[in-house]
Amino acid sequence: MLSSHAAADAGRLRQAEALPAVRPQLMIGGSWRDASDRGTFPVENPATGEVLSWVADATPQDAIEALDAASGVQASWALKDPRDRAEILRRGYERLVTQTDRFAQVISMEMGKSVHEARGEVAYAAEFLRWFSEEAVRVHGRYQRAPAGPLRHLISKKPVGPCLLITPWNFPLAMITRKVGPAVAAGCAMVLKPAELTPLTAALFVSLMEEAGLPPGVLNLVSTTRAQDVVGALLADRRLRKVSFTGSTRVGRTILAGAAANVLRTSMELGGNAPFIVFEDADLDAAVEGAVQAKLRNMGQACTAANRFLVHRAVAASFVDRLRDRFAALSAAGGASDGEIMGPLISATARTNVHRMVEDAVDRGAALVLGGGIPAGPGHFYPPTILLDVRPGSRVLSEEIFGPVAPIQQFSDDREAIDLAMDSELGLAAYAYTRDLDRTLRLQDELQTGMLGINTGLISDPAAPFGGVKQSGLGREGGAEGIEEYLTTQYVGVRQAAPSPSDPP
Ligand code: NAD
Ligand code: MN
Fold this sequence. Notes:
Layout: H1 4-18, E1 26-28, E2 31-33, E3 40-44, E4 51-56, H2 60-79, H3 82-98, H4 100-111, H5 115-135, E5 142-145, E6 151-159, E7 163-166, H6 174-186, E8 190-193, H7 199-211, E9 219-221, H8 227-235, E10 242-246, H9 249-260, E11 265-269, E12 274-278, H10 284-296, E13 306-312, H11 313-332, H12 348-363, E14 367-370, E15 385-388, H13 395-398, E16 405-411, H14 414-421, E17 426-427, E18 429-433, H15 437-446, E19 451-454, E20 469-470, E21 473-474, E22 487-495
Parallel strand pairs: 7-8, 7-10, 8-9, 10-11, 12-13, 12-18, 13-16, 15-16, 18-19
Antiparallel strand pairs: 1-2, 3-4, 5-6, 6-22, 11-21, 14-15, 17-20
Helix pairs in contact: 1-4, 2-8, 3-5, 3-6, 3-7, 4-5, 4-7, 5-6, 10-11
Bound molecules: nicotinamide-adenine-dinucleotide and manganese (II) ion.
């Protein structure tokens, strides 16, 4: 058995081997562009603070050239056989699975999640390529006779056109494949603007798709620190036809406003504030396991993260005890090893924000059951934290926590649970643990969220439609719905000449 020291050394060695595979450059029209004339920006490892790489910093002019490339190939790309596009995605899927370790190392280094969790992200990300390779050849149309009159209706689906894809840092790979997969399947050319905190995974993925046979110009990459200017230049250009955004509700609103000028198609995957409800008939062991997954996956930095725990009074003490034991065991781990451990949060600012929310809850009267302190450096680590009897009005209840903090409220009956659960402008995910079928159906009727997990803490699946209602967004990613976001409907009316009297009946 390796000592933990030797294991950490081996981990660093694997990381050192993964990094040179990344080209820290822009991809425009099939050529990599380095930093000349545009400068670079640093990418840091949030576990250590070390600079991993310097990445070419795209200008608005680069973005326009990327759109030149995308719109230049759009027509021929749209006409390519769906089978060919499917095969490219299939090869991308296979290559990604083969290179799981390399991608997991890069994700872990620039984003902070453990290599173990990062492997899970690579598997999830790859499944979007496989799923949409299967969907590419199943884009159907319709033929019908007009109910009255001489027209025949030919109804078909076409790619919407050049797309801007904007992605966040929390799943540096999966949030990209969830957009690139359906865009390739539908026949759209793309400009990808990844989060500036995690551009290395994006560059590695663009290389992989190039190797998988994606034609030059179809997928262009503009990593940048000037998100507002670069995105603004693209939204103002009439050749762009769609923007698909994953990120915060605040930035999503400004992009929706910008998309209005040229009346773009939009897909918005925005913030969440998921309630996690534990009813009195729940299997508590299962509920605790689900809670650990829904709260601590990605250190709580997931839009689907359980943000508020609502627990029936009759089982609250027992649930909190068990949750504390599971959380405490995880706080004891830590460090840059390969195991199933908690990584750091993405940045010092993010950690300060999480800690202020915990302080605010305690100031307003919540009991601190576990965690709650900032550990000594290096890295932006924060311990799994539990707050009991959080008072209404506390920030943790209304804001996206994006950290490993579980605020718990108690309820007395179903009506109170549902009212508390729905007290949010956001509506992405919800979770509930119950063994009662009627209660489950009532939740399905009454909870206004795009997704609901019953007796599970993990609902994401490339084959299911992911997305929110209310201010959590517009549109769906994955499932049979995912490709629709990149397709537009065209109807052709064909007039049949009236049969002449001499034609046979
Ligand atoms: P963010 O909104 O700060 O950034 C998202 C992307 O937008 C990044 O690429 C960023 O560079 C870009 N951006 C930032 N400001 C911009 C501006 N003014 N104009 C144009 N682009 C701009 O979000 P984040 O911190 O990267 O990610 C966390 C957020 O993402 C959370 O709110 C989380 O809930 C959300 N998220 C949602 C989903 C989902 O599917 N619903 C999935 C993952 C993350
Ligand atoms: Mn279908």
